[in-house]
TrEMBL record:
Chief location: cytoplasm
Gene behind the chain: Nucb2
Full protein name: NUCB2 protein
GO cellular component: endoplasmic reticulum-Golgi intermediate compartment; extracellular exosome; Golgi apparatus; membrane
Native organism: Ceyx cyanopectus (Indigo-banded kingfisher)
InterPro entries the UniProt entry points to: NUCB1_N, Nucleobindin
Keywords: Cytoplasm, Golgi apparatus, Membrane, Phosphoprotein, Repeat, Secreted, Signal
């Protein structure tokens, strides 16, 4: 029945199957609220994105966007810590190296759990590229 795409309507993207899919979607949604970053994203080619050139644009987004990204990162770090704790509890502390477990999560910089930096965006892009 003539139901088409309405301006401003959000198009549902299929699940990527990545264990950090929700985090990825939230980061993209927040970044797209910044006009400057959205324009850069729309004009960037895939090589600019993969190379990390787009990540450097993060320094130019608004304070509100950075604050929201920091909050998303803290939530994702908390989620990953909960997963690690559950895994360690299930293995009953058999001498698992905590740092080795953290290295499994290459979609964010776990050395800096509080702020979302250009390195985090670069790592997220590289993880998605490698995982898809």
């Amino acid at each position: 029945k003539g139901e088409g795409h309405v301006e401003g309507e959000k198009v549902e993207n299929p699940d990527t199957g990545l264990y950090y899919d929700e985090y990825l979607r939230q980061v993209i949604d927040v970044l797209e609220t910044d006009k400057h970053f959205r324009e850069k994203l729309q004009t960037a080619d895939i090589e600019e994105i993969k190379s990390g050139k787009l990540s450097r644009e993060l320094d130019l987004v608004s304070h509100h966007v950075r604050t929201r990204l920091d909050e998303l990162k803290r939530q994702e770090v908390a989620r990953l810590r909960m997963l690690i704790k559950a895994k360690m509890d299930s293995l009953q502390d058999t001498g698992i190296d905590h740092q080795a477990l953290l290295k499994q999560f290459e979609h964010l910089n776990h050395q800096n759990p509080d702020t979302f930096e250009p390195k985090d965006l670069d790592m997220l892009i590289k993880a998605v590229s490698a995982d898809i």
